[in-house]
Write a structure and sequence with these properties.
Elements (H helix, E strand, L loop, with lengths): L15 H18 L5 H14 L2 H13 L1 H9 L1 H7 L10 E5 L10 E6 L8 H4 L4 H4 L1 H9 L1 H7 L9 E6 L5 E5 L11 H5 L4 H5 L12
Parallel strand pairs: 1-4, 2-3
Helix pairs in contact: 3-4, 4-5, 8-9
The structure holds fe (iii) ion (FE).
Amino acid sequence: MNDHDHHDHGHDDGSALPEIALRVKALESILVEKGYVDPAAIDAIVETYETKVGPRNGARVVARAWSDPTYLSRLREDATAAIAELGFAGRQGEHMRLVENTPPLPNHPGCHNLVVCTLCSCYPWSVLGLPPVWYKAAPYRAKAVIDPRGVLADFGVALPKETEIRVWDSTAELRYLVLPLRPAGTEGWSEDKLADLVTRDSMIGTGLALAPGAKS
Ligand code: FE
């Protein structure tokens, strides 16, 4: 299977998605017919990404990074390897890079990272599971680059004016995991408890980690 679904850029309203679904279905039929793949195997892969792999994987990574400075160092140095340490590896997670949100400091305004794939829908499956529909849609892909602050507003995220926003364009070769800011008031929390505050969107950059008490 082709793991990078580049397609032409003539569909600015996102209407290409059903077409892609049809193409995938057609491709699957041919592969099954020719005996290259077993439909049960395809179902198993889809089932895995829908139910077993998902944003909870990424949340474990973030909670560990918040809790263990030596793990954070490894994650900065080689995110793919550090993520694999927790047992999360595989398709579309082979070349991961950590991008860290930083708080405002007296000598730095703080920075917020936002991930997009302008060309198609490259996404770190091994830590976040399947991408949400909006991630693959043309409006998000275009606006994230042109007006990232507007995108954040669409998602209900307001950052200080001074905050630097960095937009990262994913590719088949490199996928990003955002390390959100650790919420205040979580000192001494267990990794399990911290992981519950880490939303999928906070690891894409269209959201923030939840404040204690604000349940997802
Ligand atoms: Fe892509």
